[in-house]
Design a protein that fits this description.
Structural class of chain B: alpha+beta
Oligomer: heterodimer
Shape of chain A: rod-shaped
Number of strands of chain B: 6
Number of strands of chain A: 3
Shape of chain B: globular
Chain lengths: 296, 247
Amino acid sequence: MMHGRAVHAAWAMTEYKVKFDVFEGPLDLLLYLIKKQEVDIYQVNLTELANQFIEYIELMRMLDLDIAGEFLVMAATLMYIKSRELLPTDQQATIEGEDQEPDPRWELIRKLVEYKKFKDAAAKLQELELQQENVFRRVAPKPELEVEMPPQKLDVSLFDLLSALNNVLKRLEARNDALDVTDEKCTVHEKMELLLRLVAERGVVRFSELFEPITSRAEVIVTFLALLELVRLKQLVAAQPVQFGEIQITRAPVQVVLQPSPDRTQTHATADDAHTEAAPAQHGQSITGDSNSFAQ
Amino acid sequence: MQLKLVLESLLFSAQKPLAARELRELLIAAAEQESADENARLFRNVTEQEIGTALDELAREHELAQRSYRLVCIAGAWQFVTQPEYAPWVKVLVGVKPRPPRLSMPALETLAIVAYRQPITRAEIEQIRGVNVDGVMQTLIERGLIAQVGRADVVGRPVLYGTTDLFLEYFGLRSLDDLPAADELRRPLEQKTVEAAAQAGLATPPPEQLTRPEQGQPAQAQPQPVPENQSAPTQPAPETRRTGDST
């Protein structure tokens, strides 16, 4: 079928199409020629138009361009119109003997006018298309904005931690009293480093895991104090994913503001000294008074 | 409490465009909340029409205020969008909008014909464009801008095509009535056969007035030259329409 050849050729070989692209179809070529004649579509000289159209077809043939069947049909129509024009009106008699046969000139012009309108409409759509590229829709952010912070219910209070510590100590007693003879000296500072390393390696550490290898009551206490200190310094976060479940220790989210906030400096003027000190009472106060993660 | 301001707050906080129906559901849900106070219960019985009217008014207010954004209804869903002239800055903030490649002129022409004349068969489109449209139609279907909407009640029962909601979204249109010059290009709903026959070419001069080459005098000789861009309804003869794919 000759019908779709130009289009299929366009799909097959794009660069070939480029030359042809100036006129998509015969109506495009006609509109172009009418524009060149600088007259209204309704007043166009059809004989001249027919001549020009066929000239272009010849030119395309010369350039060995694939001429779509539609062009040849249009050429035939134009030739028919031209041949009719050569006869006086009364002899232009209806060849098929039909009185109602539409005037081919009128048919062609009606088609051209209609096509022109859609071409204009297409240009308007193109304008809208370009405009839409520059229009941005407001999209409200999701309500749960604070994804960085652990959800409220995960917070662990100091009492939760103390209660967990109590369990650890009870377990230790139940395990073996006799083992409590070693006199390992370890400082809160050392334990803090150990905890940080452990959490950095594992990501999440269960509270009980922190104390599993420990056999002395003193070491449990020191480890616990180290944990409290790290939480207070916002290095670690203690969270309880399930209510009354196991407490989990994770790294605190990276703080955007590195400088301590005014109220914090007020409460903890000696924050830097805290590494070396390990007074339980002081820590207990600081945790309840300051850390967000302990908010109840 | 003004309805339009309640709606404004909802659209401002929405994560997607909302249709009048969805807004109404929200208003009702708010009114039925246990904690609903007198204000919240105000719009318990609001209708979609009332919502539409309020939003139209709100959109007009925004337009008058000449803000950098406006309230629009695209494909039936309301949303706030920025004005195109602020794109140079917004683009830097949100990045280039992910959009499919622009449509070619033949694709736009074909799309325009489908948009204004839907539902329409492929043969009818080809009749208007004067060329085969297989490739272009394929592209438009693949991009989801047009879709099959039924079959014509003629021999061969050819497929009828129409535009999709995505078409409206792509061009930022509220509805098909929002198409530029819709009244002029739409297919006339009811063709009065008698009138059409009597007027032959309607607003266009009858064929007898066409300039003949023998007459020499072209343009000025016309008694009533009709500018081509004037609204000359291109009403086709009733019996020649809907020929369908005769093959």
